[in-house]
Amino acid sequence: MSNEPAAEPRWLSDEEQFAWQCYLHATTLLEDHLDRQLQRDAGMPHVYYGLLVQLSRAPRRRMRMTELAQNAKITRSRLSHAVARLEKNGWVRRENCPSDKRGQNALLTDEGMRVLEKAAPGHVAAVRSAIFDRLSPEQVGQLAEICQVMTEGLQPKGADLPWLR
Amino acid sequence: MSNEPAAEPRWLSDEEQFAWQCYLHATTLLEDHLDRQLQRDAGMPHVYYGLLVQLSRAPRRRMRMTELAQNAKITRSRLSHAVARLEKNGWVRRENCPSDKRGQNALLTDEGMRVLEKAAPGHVAAVRSAIFDRLSPEQVGQLAEICQVMTEGLQPKGADLPWLR
DNA sequence: GCCATATACTTGAAGTTTCAAGTGTCAGGA
DNA sequence: TCCTGACACTTGAAACTTCAAGTATATGGC
C-alpha cells in the first residue's frame, strides 16, 4: 500500500546513539592518523598503501584491476586514478592481460616492494598502538565479529552483481 | 640508546590481521554507503550532514567554528571549506562572535533545519540496517567500548594541545 | 557471421580534502 | 604602550574521489 520511507522512523536509542558517536569518532580519527603517518613516512595515503599490500600478497605480485578493486573495496574508477599515480611513482606497473584483451594487470615493481617493506614497520606500529595494544584478545574477537556482520549487511548475498554502485 | 623505529617490528598475529582486514572492509563499505545515500537523498556527503546535526543540537543552533571542528573531529581548514559550501546552499550562515573578534559562529538556518529533518529518517534507516538492526545489544555495548578505547589512544590526555596536527 | 548486451577499464570535470601559508585579534609582559 | 607569541580562522593550490560518459573487447543468441 505505502511506498514511502517509513511512516515513523525508528530513531536510535540512547545506547545506540552513543555507540554511533563513538564509532564515528574512532574511525575518523584513526583513518586520519594513518593517512598522516603514511603520507609522512611513505609518501602515500592509506588506501594506496593498502593496494600495494594486496599486490605484494598476490601470486606473482600482480592482479587484475577489477579483482584488486573488489579486494580493496573501492570503485574501479578510483583504482584507475590511484594506479596511474602509483605508476608515475614507479611503484606499480600495468600490463595487458593475456587471456582477456579488455583486461589489465597491476603489478608491484621491485621498487614498489622496497617502498612497502620500508613503510611496513612504521605502519604496523601505528595500527598496533592505536588498536591492538589497547584491546584485550576478547575485544579483538568481538571487533572482528561485529565488522563481519556489518560487512554482510553492506555487501549483499552474491556480492558480485551491483558491485559498489 | 637506540632511536630507531624499533629493531624488530612486532607484526600482527593471525587473529589481529583478520580483525584488521574485517575492520577496514566494514568501515570503508559503510562510509561509502552512507556517503552515497546522503548524496542522493540530501545532496551532501556524510561529513557535511554530521555538521548540520551538531549545529541542530547546539544551544541556539550555533557554534564556534573551532568547537564544531573538534566535535566533528576534522581540521579547521576542512571545516572552513565545508561551511563555505553549506553557506552557498543556504543551509548554514556565519556570524561574527560577539565576545571574540577573531571568532566566527556557524549557525544552522531554517532551511538547513528543514533539509536535515527531511534527510534524517532515511539516514537513520541506513545506519540501522547496516549496524544496529544486525548487532545484539551486547555487541552494541562492545562496539562502543572498543571505539572509546581507540579514541583515547588517538586523542592524547588533555586532547587540546596538538589538536589534530 | 552479426547483433545486442554485458564486461573491463579509462577519462575529464566537478567536488572534497590536505597542506602550507596568510590575515587579523588576543593576552601577557617589558 | 608596544612587543611577542599564541590563537581563530581563511585561502589557494595540489592531491584525491566521485560521477557520468566513453572506448574496446567479450559473450550469447539468431
From TrEMBL, chains A, B:
Pfam families linked to this entry: MarR_2
InterPro entries: HTH_MarR-typ, MarR/SlyA-like, WH-like_DNA-bd_sf, WH_DNA-bd_sf
GO biological process entries: response to stress
GO molecular function: DNA-binding transcription factor activity
HTH marR-type domain boundaries: 1-152
Protein name: Putative MarR family transcriptional regulator
Organism, scientific name: Streptomyces lydicamycinicus
